[in-house]
Amino acid sequence: MTTRLFHISDVHFGVEDRAAMAVVERAVEDERPDAVICTGDLTQRAKHREYREAAEWFAALGVPVLLEPGNHDMPYYNPWERFSDPFRRFRRLQERVGGTLHSDDVVFVSLLTTVSAQLRFPWSDGVIKSAALEQTVEQLSRLKNEPRTVIVTAHHPLLGPETGEKNPTIGGDEAFIAIASAGADAVISGHVHIPFDEVRESGGQSMRLIGTGTLSTRLRNGAPPSYRVITCERGGRISTELREIAEVAR
After folding, report:
1. Which of 196, 226, 218, 122 is nearest to 186 (CA)?
2. Nearest to residue 129, comparing CAs of 77, 187, 210, 137?
3. Is 188 a residue whose pLDDT tops 80?
4. Between the N and C ends of the chain, which has fewer C-beta atoms within 10 Å?
5. What is the pLDDT of residue 249?
């Protein structure tokens, strides 16, 4: 038995790429994955209109949808709401379209990497607070003897580039070590709009990090829109297929 997932990220409703999204829509309709997972930045400015459009699109897919909030999913033009209840609009979307994946092969644990403000600029980069990490590690501890593959979902990558540049995610190095030590098989994320699939090492721990591209018009470093197919089996066995959406298909 295997569980097949479509991993998308950074749709950025408001500046979304409708042609790229249509490719995903057709693939979902034709292949019927067990779930679609979106690792954040569903909207561009967290406007009510953008959330409505996101809700309509995700609901129309007709498969379970798992959502993670990104830094763009907190109110941009309403400072009061951003600081008093930054994920209110995201929760409403999640309640409307979020589904539950019942799988014998894989289980997901969320890690919050976004904060409403931080002592640096820009505020877009990730911050992993100790309370968020403790919550994730606690959930992982309950899965210690779990035969299913365990995947953590986050918006920001936990580690920076392998070139040795400074990690833009504050607390990411510590989170990588703690999550790998707690038994996670992989972390999937978005944010950077550039896909990757690599096994990384830090603090004596090794873990697989998987990221997908964007479905928006906000392309970076020449990477086209993309999504990833992730196939999971028990025992931490994960295979992936990156699907880049070529210009001709758009």
Report:
1. 196
2. 137
3. yes
4. N
5. 53
